[in-house]
Design goal:
Blueprint: E1 2-6, E2 11-15, E3 21-26, E4 29-30, E5 46-47, E6 58-60, E7 66-68, E8 81-85, E9 89-95, E10 110-119, E11 122-131, E12 137-139, E13 142-143, E14 146-148, E15 160-164, E16 171-175, E17 182-189, E18 196-198, E19 209-211, E20 218-223, E21 229-233, E22 239-243, E23 250-256, E24 276-278, E25 283-292
Antiparallel strand pairs: 1-2, 2-3, 3-4, 5-13, 6-7, 8-9, 9-10, 10-11, 11-25, 12-24, 14-23, 15-18, 15-20, 16-17, 19-22, 20-21, 21-25, 22-23
């Protein structure tokens, strides 16, 4: 089912398919990538209970439980339930009680609520992860919104840049295209110029840009020499992925709580970078905001 929230400044579309947003419009302009199966059919998938991938799509918990998950987990592929709706807020829920088959790949009873609130020109995204079991629950959560780039006809991809709030490391880790995992030891030069990351399709010929040592918690997507664009603020997330495809007119700005399995990590689930643990009955909350500039 599809839904729309409109506060007169923003009009945002949502779907129970994946529990996420499908459109962000302001003053008639669409800011969210509208998907193209020939390029990337996603728009703003929720990454849970992992961000990125596991080595061989498998890991094991410290208690010996097997975890078998494809890239970014299963939340984005499920049908969610509408659980709350107000004038400027909507919330969807995915829980293992409704999808017991999910426990075969992730053996932890859970409830995940994705809550969205419109606040002026901001879309506030809040993930509420609850442990419904009797043992500690390790997990990862992250956002994967892809934004239209360029925003208007007659513009080119290279007219745009990402503007970071702080200086970032001179070298970044890199993805291994054959596996999607991460090499943290063979680092590559950061393509940023000062605090800006100029956008070009060639930037994504090899793989995504991974900020595993991140100072910024605010990144703007803007047209060069203008303030047209949007701001993503993610104080709750330690990692950022910037991704597109060479033929894609979009850029994904992805706040993640964890990373794909790294070259210096084994396959113990809790030992992966950024792993969160919810105690029985505990709810862990993480969120980010998208503001139209």
């Amino acid at each position: 089912m599809d839904f729309i929230l409109d506060n007169g400044v923003l009009s945002v579309g949502f779907s129970t398919a994946g529990g996420s947003f499908t459109s962000i419009k302001a003053q008639g302009r669409e800011y969210l990538w509208q998907g193209d199966p020939a390029v990337w059919s996603g728009q703003a998938p929720i990454c849970f209970p992992i961000c990125g991938g596991l080595r061989g799509d498998e890991a094991v918990t410290r208690s010996g439980k097997a975890v078998r998950l494809g890239r970014h987990g299963f939340a984005r592929k499920q049908e969610w339930k509408l659980v709350e709706q107000g004038e400027n807020m909507i919330a969807f829920k995915l829980e293992s009680a409704d999808h017991p088959e999910l426990l075969e790949s992730y053996p932890f009873p859970f409830s995940l609520v994705a809550r969205y609130t419109l606040d002026g020109a901001k879309l506030c995204v809040r993930y509420e992860v609850a442990n419904k079991g009797e043992a500690d629950m390790p997990f990862f959560i992250g956002g994967h919104p892809g934004f239209a780039c360029p925003l208007d006809e007659g513009e080119s991809y290279s007219d745009y840049k990402l503007r970071f709030e702080a200086d970032e490391a001179a070298e970044l880790c890199c993805a291994v295209p054959a596996t999607g995992l991460i090499d943290v030891e063979g680092r590559i030069a950061n393509p940023m110029v000062g605090r800006d990351l100029p956008l070009t399709h060639e930037l994504f010929d090899f793989a995504e840009t991974i900020f595993d040592v991140l100072e910024s918690r605010v990144v703007d997507l803007v047209k060069k020499d203008e303030e047209k664009g949007l701001r993503v603020s993610f104080p709750d997330f330690p990692y950022l992925i910037v991704w597109s495809k060479p033929e894609g007119d979009f850029v994904a700005i992805e706040p993640w709580g964890g990373l794909s399995t790294c070259s210096d990590e084994g396959d113990v689930f809790e030992d992966k970078r950024g792993c969160l643990v919810a105690a029985p009955g505990e709810t862990v909350v993480r969120g980010f905001e998208i503001m139209i500039l």
